[in-house]
Specification:
- There is one protein chain.
- It contains 5 helices and 16 strands.
- The radius of gyration is 18 Å and the shape is globular.
- The longest helix has 14 residues.
- By secondary structure, the protein is of the alpha/beta class.
- Bound molecules: flavin-adenine dinucleotide and FE2/S2 (inorganic) cluster (FES).
- The site of flavin-adenine dinucleotide (FAD) has 22 residues, from strand 4, strand 6 and helix 1.
């Protein structure tokens, strides 16, 4: 694996042992990791580049959101889609992976908000659990947090129990009607937004969902932050392969690994695809 030039900021490169590894839904795995060196405190929405220590181009480091961080350990939640995630799923307990992180800009949630909506589609639930736990951990009783969780079908609904365990109201939808409301997650989300405008919407999920959430929030003047995904070669601001168009032509392209992956909805140009990956 090639040498990494770390960007400025508080992040590390370290080996991490796999302490837990469970298939939580078909093709979806949760991996618990113990970094060998102190891993900096991450913000929800930040990610790590994961390397498997195999010097094959198709198995270069790949980006994964931090799903949880507690007691010096990290959790990832991932979906098997190609060679790296397939190889990850085969790793036994005790094996080591290589981590670089925490990277990027996470969700920025001010203290004292009255109502926050969290929206997650499919594997987009991965960073939202970390965000929900962090917000609930702030113990602001006056803040109402509502979760909207969507999946193509019941087996794509991830982390429902994690949100419920935090005492949060969770509205579930599936595209095929196999669980919850039979519609896109953006339908009840828009209704809830119109019932009482939230102070902030935070979303992670497939590009079409994020576009819909962003445009809906922008049209109503509601603050909204979205976590987007692009293909990433370096994850470190060096290759410029993760560029997306910003809403301000003067500011030019935004780079997802460095300026994101979490952006204010108004920062991006939603008239063009903000993603480079078909989902
Ligand atoms: C900031 C960030 C955070 C991410 N967090 C998570 C996470 O928490 N859990 C998780 O499962 N995945 C996450 N991803 C996506 C993950 O990086 C890819 O699924 C992974 O790189 C695929 O590697 P692979 O070698 O297995 O498959 P590849 O051979 O690289 O890809 C296989 C197929 O999946 C598609 N694909 C590749 N990358 C992505 C992507 N980013 N999104 C959607 N489809 C993709 C490819 O176009 C191809 O069709 C994140 C991506 C980014 C940019
Ligand atoms: S992935 Fe290389 S600059 Fe963003």
């Amino acid at each position: 694996m090639s040498e990494t030039v770390l960007p400025r900021g508080h992040n590390v490169q370290t080996k991490a042992r796999i302490l837990a590894h469970t298939e939580v839904a078909p093709g979806h795995w949760r991996m618990g990791l113990a970094p060998e060196t102190d891993f900096p405190r991450a913000e929800p929405g930040q990610f790590v580049m994961v390397g498997l220590g195999i010097a094959a181009p198709r198995l270069w480091r790949r980006p994964f959101s931090i799903h949880r961080q507690a007691d010096g350990r990290l959790e990832l939640l991932y979906r098997v889609v190609g060679p790296t995630t397939r190889a990850m799923a085969d790793l036994p307990l005790g094996a080591a992976v290589d981590l670089v992180g925490p990277l990027g800009q996470g969700f920025r949630v001010a203290e004292g908000l009255g109502r926050i909506i969290l929206a997650a589609g499919g594997i987009g639930a991965a960073p939202m659990v970390f965000l929900a736990e962090t917000l609930v951990g702030r113990r602001q009783r006056s803040c109402e947090i509502e979760v909207f969780l969507g999946g193509r079908s019941r087996s794509d609904l991830l982390c429902r129990e994690d949100f419920q365990r935090l005492g949060l109201a969770v509205t579930v939808t599936t595209d095929d009607g196999s669980d919850g409301e039979h519609c896109l997650v953006t339908v009840p989300l828009e209704q809830a937004t119109d019932r009482r405008l939230p102070d902030l919407i935070c979303a992670c999920g497939p590009p079409a969902m994020l576009r819909c959430v962003a445009q809906m929030a922008l049209a109503r003047g509601v603050a909204c932050q979205v976590s987007i995904e692009t293909l990433m070669a370096c994850g470190l601001g060096a290759c410029l392969g993760c560029a997306v168009r910003g809403s301000d032509p003067a500011a030019g392209y935004r780079h997802v690994c460095r300026d994101g992956p979490v952006f204010d909805a108004g920062e991006l140009d939603w008239s063009v695809p903000v993603e480079t990956i078909p989902r």
